Amino acid sequence: MTRRRHAALRRVARWLAAGYVVALCLIAFWPTPVDRGAAGTISGLLARLHAHGVPDWVTYQLVEFTANIALFLPVGLLGVVLVGANQWWWAVVAGFTVSSLIELSQLMFLPGRFPTAADVVANTTGAVFGALLAVLLLDAVTSRERSARS
Hints:
The chain is mainly alpha-helical. The chain is built from five helices and no strands.
C-alpha cells in the first residue's frame, strides 16, 4: 500500500515539476524583469507599510530576495519527492545549478535583465528550505504510517 502511494505521489510530482519548469522558464527568460510593472506598486505599498510601523529594513530588495526564495521552494520540494528523502541534497544541487544557469543565460542573452549572485543565493536558499520541508513532511507521513501498522 505504501509503495503504491509513493508511486502515485511521484507521478503527481512529475506533472507538477513539468508545469513548474514551464512557469520558471517564462519567469527567468522573459526579456524584461517580470516585476517591472509591479515595482511602483510594491514600492508604494512598502512606503505605506513603513508609515504604519513596518521597519525600514523591509525594502524592495528584501521583498525581491524573499520572492526568489519562494520561487525555488518547489525545486526542493519536488526534487526530494522525485529522488527520495535520502538523497535530498540533489534537490539543492539542482536548485543551485538551475539558478546559476538562469543567471548566466540572462547575462549572455537578455540585456534587459539584471543577473546577480544574490539571486543565486536566494534561489539556492529556497531549494534548501523546500528540500528540508519535504524531508520533514515525508518523515512525518512515513512515521504515521509505521505507527498505524504497529
